[in-house]
Predict the 3D structure of the following.
Amino acid sequence: MKAELQTDRFKALDACHQQIHEHLAVLADLLDRLETGSDSVYCRQKAKTIETYFSETAREHHAEEECSVFPNLLLSDNPELLQAVQTLKQDHGWIEQNWLELAPMLRAIAQGEDWVDMAELKHSIEVFLNLCHDHITLEETLIYPQAKARLAEELASRANRLAQ
């Protein structure tokens, strides 16, 4: 049962990455629309959706990685892997810090307020997009494959022990 839960956990984490990519694309589109002066219902709705998603689901995703993916990898004797995990943990802090600056601006847009400075919004969104894309790339190209390989090894080892 535990093996199925761990496999399902990775499916959920992968699905969340896909959702994050989709929300980041909407955020980039929102910035483009706002830069052209659009103050539409669409922009307000998208700002609310993005703010809610990254304030809730994405934060939970990072917490799940810190709890269930990173600890096993930190037991590795591979310096590259250890450095990558430390980088990702630091990224979570940077993403959160940037989000704390960006979220109030998106909430204001969602509520139709006009105090948001476009230059500051643009900078915050660009930083957030870059942080998130780089972070996910490292997870998907190194960390998740390593974590999945370790899980497969553990499952094979358990199966061998049970078969004996």
Summary: Residues 21-159 form a domain with the Four Helix Bundle (Hemerythrin (Met), subunit A) fold (CATH 1.20.120.520).
